[in-house]
Design goal:
By secondary structure, the chain is an alpha/beta fold. It contains 6 helices and 10 strands; from the N terminus they run H-E-E-H-E-E-E-E-E-H-E-E-H-E-H-H. It comes from Streptomyces lanatus.
Length: about 200
C-alpha cells in the first residue's frame, strides 16, 4: 500500500534516474481525480499508443479523444526516448482489470492469467504510454526501451518495489496486447538489473 508521490517528487525521481523529461503544459494538475481516487498505488503499467508521430501522440495522450478524456497516462515515451509529462494523478490508461493480477503485483509474485475485468486500474497504477504502432513490426529504438526502463525503475526505487511491480496492459486487462514488440519479462529483467 503506497501513497502516490507528489508531482514535484515524481519529476525529481525521473530526472535522478537519468530520464530526459519534457514538461507539457500544466501537467502537474491535469488529471481525472474528480471522477475517483488515485491511490493507493501498487505499480507501473506500460502501454503502446497505436499512433505515429511524436507531437500527435503527445497531444492525443494529453487531451484524449471522444469517449475517453485525457490525460491517458502520466508520461508519453516517444521514439527518441524523451518522457513527455502530460498529467499527474488519476489518468484514463488502465481501465478495469483483474483483481488477482493486482494481488500478485502487490505481493510481487508471478502474475496469474488476466481473465477478469473487475478492478479499477486507473486508481492503482502509474501509467506510461509509448509511441508505437503496436503491430509487432514498428521498431522499439534502444533509447525508447531505455527510457521505459528508467521511468519504471525511478518509480519502483521511490516506493521500494521490485521489477515485479511493473506490468504491461496485456497482463492486466483481458483482450489487450500492449506493449507489443518486446516482452514484459525482458523489460522486467532490465529494470531488475538497474535496481
Amino acid at each position: 500500500m503506497a501513497t502516490p508521490m507528489s508531482a514535484s517528487r515524481f519529476l525529481e525521481r525521473l530526472r535522478a534516474e537519468g530520464a530526459t523529461v519534457v514538461e507539457v503544459g500544466d501537467w502537474e494538475h491535469h488529471n481525472r481525480n474528480h471522477v475517483g481516487p488515485w491511490g493507493p498505488v501498487h505499480g507501473v503499467m506500460i502501454h503502446h499508443t497505436v499512433t505515429k508521430g511524436s507531437a500527435h501522440t503527445v497531444e492525443l495522450c494529453r487531451k484524449g479523444y471522444e469517449g475517453l478524456p485525457g490525460p491517458l497516462c502520466l508520461g508519453v515515451i516517444t521514439k527518441d526516448g524523451r518522457v513527455h509529462l502530460v498529467g499527474y494523478g488519476r489518468a484514463n490508461h488502465a481501465g478495469l482489470g483483474d483483481d488477482d493480477v493486482l494481488r500478485a503485483v502487490i505481493a510481487e509474485t508471478a502474475l496469474p492469467p488476466d481473465n477478469e475485468a473487475n478492478t479499477d486500474g486507473n486508481r492503482h497504477f502509474y501509467g506510461f504510454e509509448c509511441e508505437n504502432l503496436g503491430d509487432g513490426k514498428d521498431p522499439w529504438p534502444q533509447a525508447q526501451l531505455e527510457a521505459i526502463e528508467r521511468v519504471s525503475a525511478a518509480v519502483c526505487r521511490h516506493h521500494g518495489w521490485t521489477e515485479r511491480s511493473v506490468i504491461g496492459h496485456l497482463e492486466w486487462q483481458p483482450g489487450k496486447v500492449d506493449p507489443r514488440g518486446f516482452t514484459m519479462a525482458s523489460m522486467r529483467a532490465r529494470i531488475r538489473e538497474r535496481l
